[in-house]
């Protein structure tokens, strides 16, 4: 049996619907998909400390992945996502983008 790829989806939470659609598409393609967690309602927003923890955990997901898939709608790549891309590249992970850059 062929080993499935582990892919971490990265991108701004303002694109959370697109992130989820692409995560489903990638998983239906036979990959194991990891993605960031995000609140379903405004009142569920994490505290600054919780946000930092979630950000660190997302970077751990990148470390155990074969590569990342960047959701860059309209070419937008925010500061956090830029740091995730830099981490992936420093670890020699495959980096793919939703939209060509």
- Write down the overall geometry: globular
Spatial order of the strands in the main sheet?
2-1-3-4
The span between the termini is 34 Å
How many extended strands?
4
Spans of at least 5 consecutive residues with low confidence = none
Q: Element order, helices and strands?
A: EHEHEHE
Strand-residue fraction? 15-25%
- Given the structure, what is the number of helices? 3
Mean pLDDT: 93
Which structural class fits the helix and strand makeup? alpha/beta
Largest sheet: 4 strands, parallel
Which percent range fits the helix content? 40-55%
The Rg value, from CA coordinates, equals 13 Å
Task: Please characterize this protein's 3D structure.
The chain has 101 residues and is α/β, with parallel strands linked by helices. 42% of the residues lie in helices and 19% in strands. The longest helix has 17 residues.
Topology:
Elements: E1 6-11, H1 16-28, E2 32-35, H2 48-64, E3 67-71, H3 79-90, E4 94-97
Parallel strand pairs: 1-2, 1-3, 3-4
Question: Which terms summarize this structure?
Answer:
101 residues; alpha/beta; four-stranded parallel beta sheet; 3 helices; 4 strands; 42% helix
In short:
This protein has 101 residues and is of the alpha/beta class. It is built from three helices and four strands; from the N terminus they run E-H-E-H-E-H-E. The protein has helices spanning 16-28, 48-64, 79-90, and strands at residues 6-11, 32-35, 67-71, 94-97.
């Amino acid at each position: 049996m062929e080993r499935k790829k582990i892919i971490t989806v990265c991108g701004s939470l303002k694109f959370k619907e697109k992130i989820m659609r692409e995560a489903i598409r990638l998983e239906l393609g036979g990959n194991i998909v990891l993605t960031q967690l995000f609140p379903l309602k405004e009142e569920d927003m994490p505290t600054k400390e919780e946000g930092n923890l979630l950000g660190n955990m997302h970077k751990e997901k990148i470390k155990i992945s074969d590569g990342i898939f960047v959701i860059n709608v309209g070419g937008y790549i925010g500061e956090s996502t830029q740091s995730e891309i830099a981490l992936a590249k420093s670890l020699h992970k495959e980096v793919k983008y939703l939209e060509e850059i």
